[in-house]
Write a structure and sequence with these properties.
alpha/beta; elongated; 250 residues; three-stranded antiparallel beta sheet; seven-stranded parallel beta sheet; 10 helices
Length: 250
């Protein structure tokens, strides 16, 4: 098993069980104790776990949202896969609304061969698309969140009234039967308005966000047209999507 797969296993196990032992890592990942310890050291340096004698504990970061640049580096392989898949949903002539998530930024890199218009409140997405002559870029005004590099507030919401999108592309920190959720109330307000302005709502999330919930609700699950992720979720979650008529692509 590659290190990236082991790290994902460790984090997934900790998310569900709150603790993990070195013996468990060795057994399930088929590696030596030295390799297991190195993986835990790496995750501790990343601030994702608390190492203990013989294993590790879940690092509760509910109240801490990583900086935008830090989040962009997490699960980059999965984000690239999702971005490439999602780009196939865009047709020439589309007007797209893109939110501020790091997965949506990765997706924006995949629009280079599309002739379309993009409306966004993401500083990073705007910078990416400024280099592409095929894409017309409209940036929503408002107050700047310097840490997470997006614009928000009443002026942002007012400007969205002027756009009617073919497709809205959003990220999320949680996708579950409770709906689409994020960890910023201001972000949730803007995303909710984006959804109102679009014909189709397409959510881009890696599989670690599925069946999870964050603090602030953006919308109910039945407001979503399509979810693009990196691998098939559980049968239980597939049933939820079927009941709410949400298409899943992976």
């Amino acid at each position: 098993m590659y290190q990236e797969e082991r790290l994902q296993y460790i984090l997934s196990h900790l998310s569900n069980n709150k603790r993990i032992s070195i013996d468990d890592i060795c057994l399930n990942c088929r590696v030596s104790k030295d390799t297991a310890r190195r993986d835990l050291v790496y995750l501790e340096r990343e601030g994702k776990i608390i190492r203990t004698h013989g294993g590790a504990l879940f690092q509760n970061k509910k109240n801490k949202i990583e900086s935008y640049s830090s989040r962009l580096k997490i699960d980059s392989k999965e984000k690239n896969k999702i971005g490439n898949i999602a780009s196939n949903l865009v047709e020439d002539g589309d007007l797209l609304i893109l939110d501020t998530s790091t997965t949506v930024e990765v997706f924006s890199h995949c629009l280079k061969d599309k002739i379309c218009t993009v409306v966004t409140n993401s500083i990073n997405v705007a910078e990416v698309l400024m280099e592409d002559n095929n894409v017309d870029v409209h940036v929503l005004g408002g107050k700047i969140d310097k840490k997470h590099r997006f614009l928000y507030g009443g002026y942002t919401l007012d400007m969205l009234d002027n756009y009617f999108a073919d497709k809205v592309f959003l990220g999320a920190l949680g996708v579950s039967e409770k709906g689409i959720t994020v960890d910023s109330d201001e972000d949730a307000k803007v995303m909710s308005k984006m959804i109102q302005q679009g014909n189709e709502v397409i959510v881009l999330v890696d599989s670690s966000k599925i069946n999870k919930s964050a603090h602030f609700k953006v919308c109910d699950i039945d407001k979503v047209s399509v979810i693009v992720t990196d691998k098939k979720p559980s049968n239980e979650f597939m049933k939820i999507l079927e009941e709410n008529k949400v298409e899943l692509i992976f």
